[in-house]
Amino acid sequence: MSGYPDKHSGHMSAYPPRRADAQLNRDRIVQKAREMVREPGELKLNAVAKACGIGQGTLYRHFPTREDLLAEVYRHEVDELVAAAPLLLARHQPVEALAAWFDRVAAYARVKRDVFAAVEAGTWRDLAAHSLGPIGEAVELLLSAGRAAGRIRPDAEARDVIVLISWLSRLDDAELDARGARLLAILVDGLRA
């Protein structure tokens, strides 16, 4: 495909790169929507525009529908989660990197739960299918480093970890706050060699 490289996704785009101010607006919209999706009730695009201090036309140029915006919030969260794995491995021993990554998984689980509750079933299925590969690759990166160091059990598979951490997005905030860290610590201990 010919086109322009997208500096955020790495994929080719049919559209030219955004101006710096347009990209700042887009980033601000996504961040504000991420914060607001946790609030009770339906996420309203006009409320997001107002909270960002921009006009509705600017928001609609970036995100024509509410589902477009929520899908981008989710994609952004997945991208940050996946990018964290190699950074954590560069700073920590494998098991500690995995534990720190699981701390990020808890925040991701909240966003996933809130976004999936707000979009139609077809959209969340597409989003889940899109994120499974990159998240699985991040988990495998962390597990492989731990296996190579002799700190993670040799039979640990990324798919098993994904099944276990997926339950976090089914917990409400109170339960996630009360039990999330303990559940992830149990998972880390179960993965140790």
Class from secondary-structure proportions: mainly alpha
The rounded Rg comes to 18 Å
In the CATH hierarchy, the third-tier topology of the largest domain is known as Tetracycline Repressor, domain 2
Give the termini distance in whole angstroms.
45 Å
Helix content: over 70%
Query: How much of the residues is beta strand, in percent?
Result: under 5%
Q: Which regions have little confidence, pLDDT < 50, spanning 5+ residues?
A: none
Report the major sheet.
2 strands, antiparallel
Order of helix and strand elements from N to C terminus: EEHHHHHHHH
Quantity of strands, as a count: 2
Shape label:
elongated
What is the CATH architecture annotation of the largest domain? Answer: Orthogonal Bundle
Pfam family, one: TetR_C_43
Protein name: TetR family transcriptional regulator
Keywords: DNA-binding, Transcription, Transcription regulation
Domain HTH tetR-type: 23-81
Quick summary:
Residues 44-63 bind DNA. The protein is mainly alpha-helical and 193 residues long.
Secondary-structure blueprint:
Blueprint: E1 4-5, E2 12-13, H1 20-36, H2 45-52, H3 56-62, H4 66-91, H5 94-118, H6 121-148, H7 158-165, H8 173-191
Antiparallel strand pairs: 1-2
Keywords: DNA-binding, Transcription, Transcription regulation
InterPro entries: Homeodomain-like_sf (IPR009057), HTH-type_TetR-like_transc_reg (IPR050109), HTH_TetR (IPR001647), Tet_transcr_reg_TetR-rel_C_sf (IPR036271), TetR_SbtR-like_C (IPR049445)
Protein name: TetR family transcriptional regulator
